[in-house]
Each structure stands twice: as structure tokens, then as C-alpha cells.
Amino acid sequence: MSASEDTTRARDRATVDAFLRTDRESRLRRHTLYTEDGSAALFFTDVGRPLVVRGRENLRRHGELSLQVLPDWEWTDVEVYETLRPGLVFVECRGEGTIRFPGYPAGRYRNHFLHRFELVDGLIAASREYTNPIEHMRSLGIGTPHIDRDWIPTEEHA
Fold it and tell me: Is the CATH number of domain 3-139 3.10.450.50?
């Protein structure tokens, strides 16, 4: 690995580490970690397609709204994976906090997350958040369908 790749990786890692900070001020500044035209996508959703927020100003507004609806959010069990390709970083973690979505009762939201970050010059050009939308719906008190899979020899049905 070259010295310039080491420098790029260290800068990218610092950006991802900053993204994962959950104190109020860090969350309000998170949009500054993105390129001007950067995007953040919630990839698996109840509508069957990603929800994408594009542009630093929209990301700023999203951060403000996120503080209102997920006021005490915390990432735990964080594992950061640097890849063979500089500028691409994955994070696997758990997240938990109070959820206050308009039109739904307040609840507790817990889920498992995989984040994909594409970085350019130390800034996030695109981030994707992969998580289970069923857990999101449950935290809001929304009933979810059930698929009968008793025939699969899982630990529950062995």
C-alpha cells in the first residue's frame, strides 16, 4: 500500500468515525461530512425502493429532523471495515433510541445496520443504510405480515 493510500484511508476513516458520533452537535454538523452533491439513502424500505436525500442543504435539514424523531440515538457494537478499494468503507452496528415519528406513538427503536460509505477527498459522496424495515414498523406499532416458514430447519424449528 502506498503512502498516499494510507493517507486517504486514514482521512476516510476519520470521516466515518465522525459520522458515527451521536451527540447533538455532531449530528447537527453531519451534513458537512458530505460533498455538496452527496447523498444518503435508506436502502430497504416499506415502499420497496430507497429513500434518498441528496445535497448538503437537504442533508442538513434531514439531520435536524432526525434529532426530533430519534432524539437519543446511539450506535453500539460498531465494527468498521476498510476495503481493498480506498474510498469505500463499510460499518456494521446496532442502533437504539427513542422514536417519535409524527402520527405514531412514541416507542423504542432497535435494529441492526450495515452502512456503505463512498468517499472522495475525505468527504462522503454517497452513504447507504441497510436495515430491517420490519423492525422499524414494529417500533412504531405497525402490524407486520408473517410468512409461514416452519418447514425450514432453523434453530427455532429444529
Answer: yes
Q: Can you give the residue ranges of every domain in the chain?
A: 3-139
Q: Cα separations (Å) of 95 from 63, 73, 98, 99?
A: 16, 7, 11, 12
Other Cβ atoms within 10 Å of 70 Cβ, number: 19
Nearest to 29 by CA among 77, 67, 72, 79: 67
pTM to 2 decimal places? 0.91
Question: Could you report the per-residue pLDDT of 22-69, keeping only the tens digit for each?
Answer: 999 999 999 999 999 999 999 999 999 999 999 999 999 999 999 999
User: Strand 34-42's sheet: what is its strand order?
Assistant: 51-54, 34-42, 123-131, 107-120, 88-99, 74-82
